[in-house]
Write a structure and sequence with these properties.
The model has no long low-confidence stretch (mean pLDDT 81). The radius of gyration is 41 Å and the shape is rod-shaped. The chain has a domain of 36 residues. 82% of the residues lie in helices and 0% in strands. It is mainly alpha-helical and 100 residues long. It contains two helices and no strands.
């Protein structure tokens, strides 16, 4: 279902009759500008997406490094020095009752 040469010529003649010789170049310029704006916006969005993706990857790598460094420090455990326990208040009260 492709257009042949005669169909294309017929379409061009109809466009020329409808719009006139002066409007066609203006329409072509407008279409060209619209196409350029579309390409520019598309490239801008693609650049922003790629930059955002790179930032996410950097953050993931930094988080991974942070996790591996904390794992190394948590595996090294040192024994805490034992402190002597104090006598509790409950024992003192029982000794007073026995003295009475």
């Amino acid at each position: 279902m492709s257009l042949g040469m005669t169909e294309i010529i017929l379409i061009l003649i109809v466009v020329l009759v409808l719009f006139g010789g002066k409007k066609i170049p203006e329409l072509a310029r407008g279409l060209g500008k619209a196409q350029a704006e579309y390409k520019k916006a598309k490239e801008t969005i693609e650049n922003e997406v790629s930059e955002f993706k790179e930032e996410i990857e950097k953050a993931a790598k930094a988080e991974e490094k942070k996790k591996t460094s904390t794992k190394k420090t948590t595996t090294k455990k040192t024994a805490a020095p034992k402190t002597p326990r104090r006598k509790t208040a409950a024992k003192k009260t029982t000794s007073k009752k026995s003295a009475e």
